[in-house]
């Protein structure tokens, strides 16, 4: 089986030589940056808004245990069923049990990255259910049997001709180059699916502890139909989505809309606090909320990196990342791509198999700067690098770095090695690039500059002696 790093290397090599595709991505992301810039100005003081957003999420993460209890109790008081899932398998089992109890055959879903994380769709399909993604981008990548390319814009890598082609092939529509018509094709197909669905599955952008409600933001209205037409609604959310009060939404919603898509607010903002109540005419008969841990508490226990749990999944750090702009989302091979994905995936899936993601960064800090909740992303990438080396222990790299540090900290010792380095370089040069080259892996993508014939110290000394 291909390891994550082998896959990453192969995919990045393929994506970086596709210049057309890189240009397409960069143009799309540049457009987003320009729009976002304009909207930020309307805040008056966007930096202050970011500080407030960070403080709200900080409070939520620091008090996660009590806020989660409050959230669950308030939801249960209105008849919602809560599942506490410590991992993905528990969450999937619970959802399959609910489906079985209702003899469900058809499921409609709105966008939810947590369900991608726990691999819900394949499990439901294996159990014999038809699962349809109702978010347009998710629907397109589902038809193409691909993972989302970007966790906010899942199909941003596809041009209109590719979308038309897959619609023609999978749902028998006529070819079209008109974006409105392409949207209408998906919409017409979807309408029927909403009416037939036994279960609607959604995510949640926020969970409000004070009122016991989930908040969903979207631009297409599909989440509203998904959560209100079927008889059963299941919301799947990571435990870190909690915020303390309803008032907090007044800053979190504009921050999410602005940072994520350069919109003041997303078009549809819904709050759901339970199944249909006796005096209500709409809504599902049953409402379940599945609270997923799946190693988030492991991250919570890390005092250095727990601020990564503040993430509101706006996608802004992907949009500004020079690595993402060139390798694209699929190369990461993870549910969450870009800088935040590189920070949290080693915590969610294991440090050693995913440590390479921490090196897929220029450490320019653009991600940390753009983050609306002020997560120290680029420093976390360095912390992951450090932790990977410490955890592994006894590596050759670690030994070499220790010796290097020892020599660099002792000027006399350092000067005495100069001749040695020149000699080593002279012996190595004829082997360069050959099979026996011990530095082949390093120098295949880097230049090893030869040591200067005369060191700076010597030149300085000679200069001073000459001036006397
Ligand atoms: S880390 Fe920050 S910028 Fe990146 S997705 Fe999360 S909230 Fe947005």
Would you tell me which CATH topology of the largest domain applies?
A: Rossmann fold
Poorly predicted regions: none
CATH class of the largest domain: Alpha Beta
Distance N terminus to C terminus? 69 Å
- Give the overall average pLDDT: 94
Q: What is the architecture of the largest domain at the second tier of CATH?
A: 3-Layer(aba) Sandwich
- How many discrete domains? 3
- Which percent range fits the helix content? 40-55%
Distinct bound molecules: iron/sulfur cluster
The dominant shape is: elongated
What topology, given as strand order, has the largest sheet?
Answer: 1-10-7-4-2-3
CATH-level-4 superfamily name of the largest domain = NagB/RpiA/CoA transferase-like
What structural class do the secondary elements suggest?
alpha/beta
Total helix count? 24
What share of residues are in beta strands?
5-15%
Give me the Rg, rounded: 26 Å
Give a short account of the largest sheet.
6 strands, parallel
Key descriptive features of the protein:
468 residues; alpha/beta; Rossmann fold; 3 domains; 6-stranded parallel beta sheet; 53% helix; binds iron/sulfur cluster
Description:
With 468 residues, the protein is α/β, with parallel strands linked by helices. The protein has 3 domains: 1-37 and 317-393, no CATH class; 43-294, 3-Layer(aba) Sandwich (Rossmann fold), CATH 3.40.50.10420; 396-467, no CATH class. The chain is 53% helix and 10% strand. The chain contains 24 helices and 10 strands. The protein has helices spanning 4-16, 19-41, 46-62, 64-76, 88-101, 113-117, 120-126, 136-143, 160-171, 179-196, 222-228, 249-261, 296-300, 316-320, 324-327, 338-349, 351-354, 366-370, 377-392, 396-408, 411-416, 418-428, 440-443, 456-467, and strands at 81-85, 106-109, 130-133, 199-202, 206-208, 213-218, 232-238, 242-243, 268-272, 286-292. The strands form 2 sheets. A 6-stranded parallel beta sheet has the order 1-10-7-4-2-3, sandwiched between helices. A 4-stranded mixed beta sheet has the order 8-5-6-9, with helices on both faces. α2 (19-41) runs antiparallel to α12, α9 packs parallel to α10 and α16 runs parallel beside α19 (377-392). The longest helix has 23 residues, at 19-41. The relative contact order is 0.12. The model has no long low-confidence stretch (mean pLDDT 94). It binds iron/sulfur cluster. Iron/sulfur cluster (SF4) binds at residues 259, 311-317, 340, 370-373, 375, 377. Iron/sulfur cluster is lined by residues 259, 311-317, 340, 370-373, 375, 377.
């Amino acid at each position: 089986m291909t390891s994550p790093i082998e896959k990453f290397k192969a995919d990045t090599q393929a994506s970086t030589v596709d210049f057309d595709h890189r240009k397409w991505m960069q143009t799309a992301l540049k457009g987003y940056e320009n729009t976002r810039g304009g909207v930020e100005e309307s805040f008056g003081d966007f930096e202050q808004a970011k500080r407030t957003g960070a403080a709200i999420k900080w409070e939520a993460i620091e008090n996660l245990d009590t806020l989660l209890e409050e959230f669950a109790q308030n939801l249960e008081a209105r008849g919602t069923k809560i599942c506490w899932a410590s991992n993905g398998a528990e969450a999937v089992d619970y959802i399959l049990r609910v489906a079985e109890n209702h003899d469900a055959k058809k499921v409609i879903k709105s966008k939810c990255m947590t369900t991608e994380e726990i691999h819900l769709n394949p499990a439901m399909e294996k159990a014999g259910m038809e699962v349809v993604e109702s978010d347009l981008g998710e629907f397109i990548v589902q038809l193409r049997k691909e993972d989302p390319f970007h966790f906010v814009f899942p199909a941003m890598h596809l041009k209109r001709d590719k979308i038309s082609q897959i619609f023609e092939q999978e749902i028998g529509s006529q070819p079209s180059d008109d974006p409105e018509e392409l949207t209408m094709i998906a919409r017409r197909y979807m309408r029927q699916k909403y009416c037939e669905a036994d279960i609607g599955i959604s995510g949640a952008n926020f969970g409000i502890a004070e009122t016991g409600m989930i908040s969903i933001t979207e631009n297409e209205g599909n989440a509203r139909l998904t959560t209100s037409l079927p008889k059963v609604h299941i919301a799947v959310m990571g435990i870190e989505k909690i915020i303390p009060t309803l008032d907090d939404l007044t800053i979190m919603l504009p921050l999410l809309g602005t940072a994520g898509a350069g919109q003041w607010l997303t078009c549809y903002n819904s709050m759901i606090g339970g199944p249909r109540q006796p005096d209500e005419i709409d809504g599902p008969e049953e409402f379940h909320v599945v609270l997923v841990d799946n190693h988030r508490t492991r991250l919570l226990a890390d005092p250095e990196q727990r601020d990564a749990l503040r993430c509101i999944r706006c996608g802004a750090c992907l949009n500004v990342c020079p690595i993402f702009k060139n390798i694209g989302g699929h190369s990461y091979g993870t549910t969450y791509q870009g800088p935040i994905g590189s920070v949290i995936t080693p915590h969610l899936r294991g440090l050693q198999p995913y440590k390479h993601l921490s090196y897929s960064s220029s450490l320019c800090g653009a991600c940390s700067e753009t983050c609306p909740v002020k997560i120290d992303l680029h420093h976390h990438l360095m912390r992951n690098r450090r932790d990977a080396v410490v955890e592994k222990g006894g590596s050759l790299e670690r030994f070499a770095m220790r010796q290097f540090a020892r020599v660099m900290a002792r000027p006399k010792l350092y000067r005495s090695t100069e001749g040695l380095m020149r000699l080593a370089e002279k012996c190595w040069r004829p082997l360069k690039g050959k099979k026996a080259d011990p530095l082949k892996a390093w120098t295949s993508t880097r230049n090893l500059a030869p040591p200067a014939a005369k060191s700076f110290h010597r030149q300085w000394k000679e200069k001073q002696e000459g001036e006397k």
